[in-house]
Design goal:
five-stranded parallel beta sheet, two-stranded antiparallel sheet, 5 helices, phosphoprotein
């Protein structure tokens, strides 16, 4: 595993979609795959902080809304961009996700290039420019000169 790569956490219950996202992004990112929100939360509790989270809405155990609420409860993960990638197409779903902590929303089927651009832009805006550095599980806020 290349530690210079950013980590992309994919929370998706469909095996084919997990494999597709792994195939698309594994060259550029360390891709961590979790089948549902509970597995992802357990992984996050180990102190690992992804650069970006991509989550589905319709999953077993807990759905994407519950997953977002759980992740956003912790200050440590508030600056981690969260993109919802879902088959839900309604405006109400998008608004609900954005209100509950998603930073972006894309519908399936999706354009891989568009998703990659969104990942890069959000990681840059929320990660680098927020002035947040994560070292050894400790969040350090610093002021840019």
């Amino acid at each position: 595993m290349n530690n210079l790569k950013k980590t992309l956490l994919v929370v998706e219950d469909e095996p084919m979609m997990r494999r597709l996202l792994l195939h698309i992004f594994s060259e550029k990112y360390n891709v961590v795959l979790k089948e549902n929100g509970l597995e992802a939360i357990e992984w996050l509790k180990t102190g690992t902080s992804p650069s970006v989270i991509i989550a589905d809405l319709n999953m077993p155990e807990i759905d994407g809304y519950e997953f977002m609420a759980e992740v956003r409860k912790y200050d440590y993960y508030n600056n981690v961009p969260l993109i919802v990638l879902s088959g839900e197409q309604g405006s109400d779903d998008r608004v609900k996700c954005l209100k509950r902590g998603a930073d972006d929303f894309m519908t399936k089927p999706f354009n891989p290039e568009e998703l990659e651009i969104r990942i890069e832009k959000l990681a840059s805006l929320l990660g680098d420019k927020a002035g947040v550095s994560r070292m050894d599980g400790v969040k350090v806020m610093y002021k840019e000169a």
